[in-house]
Amino acid sequence: MNNHNALYIIATPIGNLLDMTQRAVDVLKQVDCIAAEDTRHSARLMQHYHIATPLIAYHDHSDATQVARIVEKLRAGQSVALISDAGTPLISDPGYRLVTKVRSEGMTVVPIPGPCAVIAALSASGLPCDRFSFEGFPPAKQKARQSQFEALLKDTRTLIFYESPHRITASLADMRDIFGGDRQIVFARELTKTFETFLSGTLDEICVKVAEDDNQRRGEIVVMVRGAQEEEKREALDEATEKTMRILMQELSVKQAAALASKLTGEKKNRLYQWALEQQGK
C-alpha cells in the first residue's frame, strides 16, 4: 500500500469471485480492519482469498457512533478498508457519511477500483455510453416513482436504474406509461453470474417478456433506458390534436387524457403525455 494510514474504498465482485483484483486482495490483507456492509456475507470472500483481517460492521443503518469508531482508528494511525456486499461502495451502497467525515478530518481516502454493476451493464448494452445518468433504485411508491420518470422524460442521456425482483414488473409498467411503449431499453440481470441475461427491445416487448418468464424476476436487475431523441423534443402537435387534449385535460388526468386522445387522433400516447406535462409546467 502506498499510504498505510488511510480509508480504502474497495470494489468487490458483483457475482463472480474471480473478478477480484490482485490489488484489492493485497490491500484487504494489509489493512488493520475491514468495514463490511454484512460481515457474514463478506466472510465467504475473505475465506476464498485467505484474508484473515478482522471484519467490523458498517451499513446504512450504522449510527454516528460506528462512524466515530472508524474515524478514531484512522486518527490512531490505523488503516481501514470499506467494502459493500457487492460492487463499488457508495454506488447505491453505504459509505457516503463515512467518506465525508474522513475527508472533513483531512485524512486520506484511497479508491481501489473494480467491479460496478452500472458500468458493467452499460458497457455491454449497446446503448449510447457517451452520456448517461445513474438513477439508483426508483422509489417504492408508485406515485413517487412515476414522478421521477416524468422528470426524466425529456432527458437525452441513457438512464440507468437498479430494481428489485418484487418491484420490477410495476417499475417496467410505469416506465412504459411514462416513456412510451416504443422507447428502447436493455434489461440486464444477474451480471457475471451463472444465469446472466441481457434482454433488448422496446418497453412494450420487455414488459411482456418479463411478465411471461418468472426467471426474469429473480436476482439483481439493471434497467437501461435510451434517452429521448432530439426530434422527440422538438415535435409539435397539430392544432386539432392540441384542442382535443386541452378539452380532455379539463375533465381527466393527464394519463387518461393522453390515452383517450391517442385513440381519437392516432397520435402516440407518449407524445401526448409529454406535451401535457409540458403544458402543466408553463
Fold blueprint:
Blueprint: E1 7-10, H1 22-30, E2 33-36, H2 39-48, E3 55-57, H3 64-75, E4 80-83, H4 96-104, E5 109-112, H5 117-123, E6 132-134, H6 142-151, E7 158-163, H7 168-179, E8 184-189, E9 197-202, H8 203-212, E10 221-225, H9 230-234, H10 239-249, H11 254-265, H12 269-280
Helix pairs in contact: 3-4, 6-7, 7-8, 10-11, 11-12
Commentary on this structure:
The protein has 282 residues and is an alpha/beta fold. The protein has helices spanning 22-30, 39-48, 64-75, 96-104, 117-123, 142-151, 168-179, 203-212, 230-234, 239-249, 254-265, 269-280, and strands at residues 7-10, 33-36, 55-57, 80-83, 109-112, 132-134, 158-163, 184-189, 197-202, 221-225. Helix content is 42%, strand content 16%. Strand 8 and strand 9 (197-202) form a beta hairpin. Helix 3 crosses helix 4 (96-104) and helix 11 (254-265) crosses helix 12.
